[in-house]
Specification:
The chain has 112 residues and is of the alpha+beta class. It has three helices and eight strands; from the N terminus they run E-H-E-E-H-E-E-E-E-E-H.
Length: 112
Amino acid sequence: MLLHIISTAGWAAARSAGSIPPATGEEFVHCSDRGVVHVTAGKFFHGQSGLLLLVVDPARLGVPVRWEAVADSPLWFPHVYGPIPAGAVVEVHDFPCLPDGSFVLPEAVAVL
């Protein structure tokens, strides 16, 4: 399973549109897995509220997923090369930050 962090409003818009498109100027949608989602959350979403953690089934995507390294990290991240169909999202979890602005993987996702 892949994980994607999105705002509540962003998820509502994606459901209405039918998919999560790559961000403007990007050719893929950034995702994570259980082992690296805390890195993504801490770097790009530190202290933000109103976030959701989407669980995406890669078998339902219909577009390529590539695991790629990023320039400032030794870790590899899954990139979805095309939109993520709303139907590929199999679970939606609240993803609140802790008082220090960091994030903890929801227990329901940790056991996937």
